[in-house]
Amino acid sequence: MYGIELEEEDLEEIALVAWDLIGNKRTKLYSYTTCIDNNNSIQLPCNASSVESLTVPYEDWNRVTNHTENGDYRTSIIESRIEAEK
Q1: Cβ-based neighbours of 47, under 8 Å, separated by 6 or more
Q2: Dihedrals φ, ψ of 18, to 5°?
Q3: Other Cβ atoms closer than 10 A to 72
Q4: By CB atoms within 10 Å of each CB, which of 28, 30, 48, 51 scores lowest?
Q5: 22 with 16: CB under 8 angstroms?
Q6: Where are the domains of the chain?
Q7: pLDDT band at residue 59 under the 50/70/90 scheme
Q8: Taking all residues of the chain, what is their mean pLDDT, rounded to a whole number?
Q9: What's the predicted TM-score (pTM) here?
């Protein structure tokens, strides 16, 4: 229409970006809580098609650093403060 020529792969890329921006896709987000087994794996529910994120219930601070043997206590204080503010 405007005299622009694109490769088929470029058109597919543009279509996928447009589809993502539409925002009316039929999706559902679920929260699932489980424990890790002895093989460091988890059993997902049968209706799970993808995993968006994983979280752990403890503060994430630097337990091992190149400067100290017992971890970086400054990051422990910061993470504890963040968890307390939640």
Answers
A1: 30
A2: -65, -40
A3: 16
A4: 28
A5: no
A6: 8-85
A7: low
A8: 77
A9: 0.34
